[in-house]
Structures are given as C-alpha cells and as structure tokens.
Amino acid sequence: MNTVRSIIDSRAGTRADDTFLISPETGKQLSYRNLQVYAREIENNLYALGLVKGDKVAFLMSNGIWTTALFLGTMYGARITVPLNGVSGNEQLQYVIEHSDAKVIFVEDEYLEKYHSVFDNIPDHILVVPTSRDSGPNWPQNLADLKADPTGPESDDDDL
Fold first, then answer.
1. Are strands 56-60 and 102-108 parallel, antiparallel or unpaired?
2. What is the b/e burial string over 24-49, where b = at least 16 CB atoms within 10 angstroms of the residue's CB?
3. Got the DSSP string for 72-91?
4. Class for the domain spanning 4-139
5. Residue 108: in which H helix or E strand, if any?
6. pLDDT tens digits, 63-103
7. Where are the domains of the chain?
C-alpha cells in the first residue's frame, strides 16, 4: 500500500535533490530530501507533544512551502489534517475549532492577529503553534523536555 510516508521516503531515496515544490509566492524550492527532513522533524515534534497516530492537527495558514511541509509531515506521522478556512468569521472559526477534536493548531502570524479573539478563547487542551510563512513553526521551547524520544516514534507503514 502506498502511504504518504512511503512515497516521501521513496522519492527522497531515488530523487533526493530533485525539486518537489516551487513556491510561486517566493520562488523558494523544496527538494524531496528536504521534504523528508521536514516531515520527520514534524513527526518527531508532534510525538514530543504527545500526539499519536490518528490525532487531529489543524492548520490556519496561507499557501506556501511550510504549509505543504506541515500538511505532509502531519500525514507522514499518521495524524489527521484539519484545514481551517482563513476567510471564515470569528464565530464560524471558533465553532469549527471547538468541534474539530484537534489537539494542535498551526496558525500563521497574520491569522493570529486577525482572529486574536478566537485564539484567546479556545479550550486550554488545544495547543496553538504560531507559524511563520518563511521559517515554519515556533515550537514550544520546552519541547525537548517533553516526551521526545531520541530515536523518534516507532512507525509501522502497515498502520498508516
């Protein structure tokens, strides 16, 4: 069975330096090798936050390399992506977040400003990770002290 993980790993192994994505907004490129590196980093950081296979991860971000890396990195680690609509109103966004079962939300800086009243009032069990379009997630500083395993989470492609 082909999974996101198996496809990324296969391409990183056979076409490592080939371009996977070119961001039309910035012209920056992402190779298959770098996609795999990002996917593994994202998987390990989500694991360190306590997320397991099947947990939901929400996104409120514009198109770009980091959005793609986070979406694919989430799926690489067998978590479920929950895209949020950046043009919805406060009430709609609040409702969707509260009913999404997401444990983490990656939010681009501009949306943190736009929807500050929503993010000030979301349940405490949902972690908001500010995310820069240019440099990616601003992971919690205590991430290394959490459940991080130096060998990374165990992965079984059959379970993905």
1. parallel
2. eeeeeebbbbbbbebbbbbbbbbbbb
3. HHHHHTTPEEEE--TTS-HH
4. alpha beta
5. strand 102-108
6. 899 999 999 999 999 999 999 999 999 999 999 999 999 99
7. 4-139
